[in-house]
Structure formats: structure tokens, C-alpha cells
Amino acid sequence: MSLKSLLGNIDTEALSGAVSKGAPLLGSLIGTPATGAAIGMIAKALGTDANPESITRMLESDPEANAKLQKLENEHQQTLTRMVLEAESVRLGEVNKTMRAEAASNDAYVRRWRPTYGYLTAAAWFIQMTGFTVILGVVAFRTPSELAAVVGALGVVLSALLGLWSIALAVLGINVHKRSQDKQVAAGQAPKAGFMDAVVKRVGG
User: Fold this and answer.
1) Which of 56, 71, 72, 170 is most exposed by smallest CB count within 10 Å?
2) The dihedral of CA 197, 190, 116, 105: what is its sign?
3) Interior CA angle at 186 toward 204 and 199, to 5°?
4) In whole angstroms, how far apart are CA 113 and each of 33, 109, 120, 193?
5) pTM to 2 decimals?
6) How far apart are CA 122 and CA 133, in angstroms?
7) What is the chain's pLDDT, residue by residue, as a tens digit (205 residues)?
8) Angle, nearest 10°, between helix axes 77-104 and 65-75?
9) HEC string for the chain
């Protein structure tokens, strides 16, 4: 049975967590394109077959398993770091590939979902702030004595919405950045290298 078929029958997230207890870098490779290489290294270090089930059993039964994996990671720190960065680069490449496919799609909805998200976020922000302003204005004009209580209540509401707005604005920022990259690609220009690209290039020489 191939490694690919074995991986399809197990919980890679659970295996990654188990391996990470002794070797965080190795564990982070489980479930990435470098899974096969990681499985081979782990199996050799533990003295077992190169398949997830055998590794899982060894991790559960051998009290020295974590120490062996930690030793392996320490001895191959640079190689494993490079593998992690390369796996992350592949993942980001797939994300960018999907985004480019969306940008080139003939489906108007697929091509315009990012601008639509931006417009809806801006509209929601405008409606919320306008509502708060109107409430404060009405209260200040009609019942000034209750203004402090209303301001406190609105503060509580804003605090409750802070987490949601943080996520929404973070996604909006990423969308704006990716939209700019899409336009550069469409114009035949190479997007500027990001942080992960620079790190991979530096480590890989």
C-alpha cells in the first residue's frame, strides 16, 4: 500500500501533534507536500516501518520516542527548516495560483468577490458609525442627562464588535494586497517578493 493511500486513512493532524511533542519542525511537515520525506526520517529514527500507523504505535509504546525525534531534529535543524519553508512556499504558491485563476475567471462573481467584500465591509462600517452618531445626537438633543449612560452602552457594544471588526479588516487588508498583485500580474509585471519568498531564497541559497 502506498504512503499516499495510508495518509488518506489516518488523522494527519493527530499524527502531526504527536510528532510535534518531541520534534516541532518534523511535526509541522506532516500534512504538507514534504510528508513523505518526514515520514521516512521519523521511521528511520524510531526504527520502525515508514508508514503512519507504525509510527503512531511506536510513539505510544516507546518512552524514548520523543527523545529520539528531538535528537533527529537537532541533528538536521537546517535541513528541516529548509523543508518547512519550502513546504510553506508551495502552499502559498497554490494559494496564489487559485487567486490568479479567480482573477482570470470569466465568471463575474468569482472575479469580483474581493471588491464586493470591500464594498460591503465599507458599507457596514458606514452604517454602524452613522447609527452610533445619530443615536448620540438624538440623545444629546432630547435627553442630555442620559448621554453618559448611552455612551457607556455604545462602548460596550463596540468592545463586543472589536474582535469581529479586527478579522473583517484583516481580511480586507489581505484582499487589497492580493488585488494589487493580481493587477501587476495582469499587466505583465512580477509582483514584489514577500517575506516568505525572501526567507526561502535566503535559506535555500
Assistant:
1) 170
2) negative
3) 15
4) 29, 6, 10, 25
5) 0.42
6) 16
7) 444 554 555 667 778 888 888 888 888 888 777 778 888 888 888 888 877 888 888 888 888 888 888 888 888 888 888 888 787 777 777 766 766 666 665 566 666 777 888 889 899 999 999 999 999 999 888 988 888 898 888 888 888 888 888 888 888 887 777 666 666 655 555 556 555 455 444 444 4
8) 80
9) CCHHHHHCCCCHHHHHHHHHCCCHHHHHHCCCCCHHHHHHHHHHHHCCCCCHHHHHHHHHHCCCHHHHHHHHHHHCHHHHHHHHHHHHHHHHHHHHHHHHHHHHCCCHHHHHHHHHHHHHHHHHHHHHHHHHHHHHHHHHHHCHHHHHHHHHHHHHHHHHHHHHHHHHHHHHHHHHHHHHHHHHHHCCCCCCCCHHHHHHHHHHC
